Amino acid sequence: MTSHTIYAVREWMYKRVDENTGEITKEFKAGLCQFMEVITNQPLGREQGIRTCPCLKCRNEKFLKIEIVCRHLYNRGFTPGYYIWLSHGKDYVDRPGNICRGRKVVEINNGRYVGESSRRPIIDENNIDRMVREAFPEYVKSSNVVEKPNPDPRRFFEMLDADNHPIYEGFKVGHSPLSAATRMIGIKIDFNLSEDCVDAIADFFCDYLPKENLAPHSYYAIQKLVSGLGLPYQMIDVCRDNCMIFWREDENLEFCRFCGKERFQVSTGRTRIPYQRMWYLPITDILKRLYQSDRTASGMRWHGEYQFTGDISHPSDAEAWKHFQYKYPDFAREMRNVYFGLCTDGFNPFGKRGRKYSLWPVIVTPYNLPPTLCMKREFLFLAILVPGPNHPRRALDVFLKPLISELQMLWHEGV
């Protein structure tokens, strides 16, 4: 199935009710069986029995039991435009290796999902290996080299080695030190755990595992394991009055070119401390990751492959988008080119009752993705963090300088 026929093949998703009889169509029931087969045989559905619900009301924002997901879809139908099952592990192209087998769907009876397991589903048990290989695709083909690699590919081999070893001999296949570290990082983020708490949890598990185990024993060890998968960032010194940033040609200046104030605080230590500093996260590496993964690479072409239905449901339906494509036809001709949205807003990280502080994150999101994804938290990328405690006011453009420079480079040279 190619991306050009995907919409025709899945027309059943929006033909739920027969206009003449008012009953659920056989076509929709058969298609719903196919969809339930897909999500049931994936790891999250098979192990925990839950998946995101793509019904008209939930819109892939809630994790529900599979039986409830089926009932919602049967009674409400699918959220508009969800032809590509990206939130449920399906790309534009259905490849034989991606098709879930093993769970035989018997029937959809009044919105109730009934099925039986005929054999163990053919599922990749370890997605960590895939994640590592997608992060370092340029080194995958040469992973059998004998000579000592240079620092860049060495990170790849270290990550792959951490993924290939079980936590201890005889442990469950697919559970490696790297998978444990990534799982713990996810738990820390989801529940806002402190570093001391993660240290205590890691130490607790190590105490109950066999003595010769490879599980990370501290938050530092966890960070060290997953650091190779992280994205680079830059810390750039800023004038205390927000006049300029000490970057590129101004990187070695000691005083502001506009107000003449000192860059560094008076200190007796060896490390020089600037009065103010901003954080910049380059977006080029983010774009590489989006196109290195086959799950997101296909979604980045969505804006050029779907058909306008008459209702504006995506920025690509608007006149401004069409005007831009008319003005730059060469850019519009390649659907893999990226259309970014940029936004920022200040907030007080200490809450209303905390001390006065204004922190301004600058967020970019690729509008190539379908509506169900481009506004999801996973695709809202932090590009700049403007420091506080004061409001940047008219100096916000000063902090945007690295991002604008990188966008100009991407426009003229690409990646």
Automatic annotation (TrEMBL):
Segments forming domain Transposase-associated: 10-89
Protein name: Transposase-associated domain-containing protein
InterPro entries with a match to the protein in the record: Transpos_assoc, Transposase_21
Organism domain of life: Eukaryota
Lineage: Eukaryota, Viridiplantae, Streptophyta, Embryophyta, Tracheophyta
Species in which this protein is naturally found: Cardamine amara subsp. amara
Transmembrane segments: none
